[in-house]
Amino acid sequence: MNVKIWILYGWFTMLATSGLAQSIHPDILEKPWAAHWISPANISPQGYGVYLFRKTLRLPTRPEQYIIHISADNRYKLYVNGNLASMGPIRGDLQHWHYQTLDISGLLKDGDNLIAAEVWNEGEFRPEAQISLRTGLIIQGNTASEAGINTNETWKTFQQTDYQPIPVKMQAYYVAGPGEFVKMNSALRNWRNADFDDSRWAAARLLMPGVPKDVKGGFGTVSGWMLTPATIPEMELKLQRFAQVRRAAGVRIPEGYPAKASALTIPAHSTATLLFDQGELTNAYPVLSFQGGKDASITLHYTEALYSKFPVKGNRNEVEGKVIIGRKDSLIADGSPAQRFTTLQWRTFRYVEVKVITKDEPLILEDFSSVFTGYPFPYQAHFESDQPELSQIIKVGWHTARLCAVETYMDCPYYEQLQYIGDARIQALISLYNTGDDRLVKQALSQMDQSRQPEGVTLSRHPSYTPQYIPTFSLWYIGMLHDYWKYGNDQAFIKAKLNGVRQILAYFQQYQQPDGSLMGLPYWVFTDWVTASDWNDGVAPKSKDGSSCVVDLQLLWAYQAAAELERELGYEEISRRYVKQAEVLKASVKQKYWEPRRKLFADRMEKDRFSQHSNALAILTGVVTGAEAKDLAQRLLQDHNLASASIYFKYYLHQACIRAGLGNEYLQWLGKWRENLSMGLTTWAEMSDINESRSDCHAWGSSPNIELYRTVLGIDSQSPGFSEVKIEPHLGNLKKASGTIPHSQGPITVSYELQESEWQMIIQTSIKGEFIWKGKSYRLKPGSNTFHIKE
What we know:
This protein folds into 4 domains: about 5-235, Galactose-binding domain-like (Jelly Rolls, Sandwich); about 235-375, Jelly Rolls (Sandwich); about 510-670, Glycosyltransferase (Alpha/alpha barrel); about 715-790, Maltose phosphorylase, domain 3, CATH 2.60.420.10. The chain is built from 14 helices and 37 strands.
């Protein structure tokens, strides 16, 4: 897909055509590249460093098309004639190292063209999600016509020594990369321009040719990065301004600032501190413009929320008496005019504290703004009802999902930036229901499959340079694949992943007993962040023999999903095998964990621990059905002695209750989301304890962005690939509701309104299907369908 990016980014523009997978010449995919990986000579290959690269590209006339492929380790920013053209690469692993493909012809001109790249390696301080081999840059022209840009010894390089890392010290798990200490250097300011003097720069050092994945190296060996084209577009960039300054000392704030740019003067030998409020959480590149102030220090301190006392946050709108904790950048001004700073990588913040300490010269702060970044999702859904609060829940949920999706899905943008299967399963359905864009979904499924270990289990998160094993997340991977089979539109993609599903289930079979129950499952058997004392680090209570109802039911659900996938995709024998194993395990769960006096499933065979989790999964797997399931669902909502699901696992709790027949009560279950809103959050907190939640932005809590469409409006897939639709609304106490979801064949739109004692229901669908209201079924044809039904 061709995507034109034309963005004001601080002080330069970005114009390139990205996402050109269909334009990649076959030789780029099938043969070693003529271009080499290059780096400066005499550097620490894995150490922290920022490096500059330049080459003059001479063209007799500006070409109509000039397609290039670019990658780097760790990351790069590419400039063509001073204009930002690309940033990347998309995170991956060494066996799947992504390169971006773009057409830079719109930035070229007749004659000499300056191609420049900034490459940085954050070394030991790099984000956990950043896998790395060593510092390097590679650019390859698509054909012989573009070969002049190929990276080789004609490129010049320079080590930018004015950067140093600032480690982030927090009393919480933080692995999202360091801050930056930067000495502003006017001598290097115009290094991206053609008239810059690079005569003292050294020639690049050749490392190795670029080698596409699956291309044979010498004697079959593979060294370095296995190059593969990115399957997602470049990230969105959008200029944004801060909403207000909440606190200021040592400087006068003019009216209308900072929504409107205005120069602030900090006198010599003084200190000024300003607390900027974006008004909502964001992922963005800060852009600071200033002049003068030689040797002045400027610190930018970023946080999601201020703290009364760590870890207590309270209402996120309140700042009085609170302190800022978190990642920071620090600059030393060089005294020149037109100094500008932006970070190498984006930051997450609602609040930014800017502190300026001047020396012998005043410093003029000319402007401070930021450039939002994220995966370029096209929001295509719409929800409206006679309860406006629901639209606010949709808005905050979508904002949360956006901030947790950049080059991959992420659990949270501030602390980890890691793609966990448990989170990504929910995020994927949000993407499909809200945008119809499945590219990030497919990338996530592929990356999880690529993380699979020789023993069969996937890693819990990927990419990640530290392997982490959560076996239950491998089961959620099977569920996520099944979700895409049902709601996505690429059955061949699913079929190619079945071998991985088989290996995962074979791994679990090693730990199954004759009755099907799991015992001795290694690693971190995480289910949910439950506050009950007998749940340790998110692990459900175990029986004395090591078995667990919660884990057995997760395995059962995976068998059921895999059996359906195998059957529908043509592997009947494997499907029958999984069905048989599921039947054995289902019978064992009922016999082993059912407690008849409390009429609940216990978490362990001693029948002394109970949770919403076991009982919700029992409904979802069909261990109980019909009236028995409805009775169980009502009890697990009413019994306050059960270990409670967090905002994350409420996704499964709510699905279970809906399946049991309680869908019309869904709007009553949104108390945790309403509590988030009342405490000033603009995204959903990670934990149910909102006051002390580590992260303020976890998209695993955005499940209402699925269920308000799937359950309340009732729009659901009736068959694989969403080829038919089932519409069964659960309106609760709503008298009016309408909405739209995207679909590959065209949007599906519904409108429901109670007029006196009659419902008017209008359904516009691009595919055939079924409409169900109070147990009665009506046929839907493509086009407009109108029903008038007595209440």
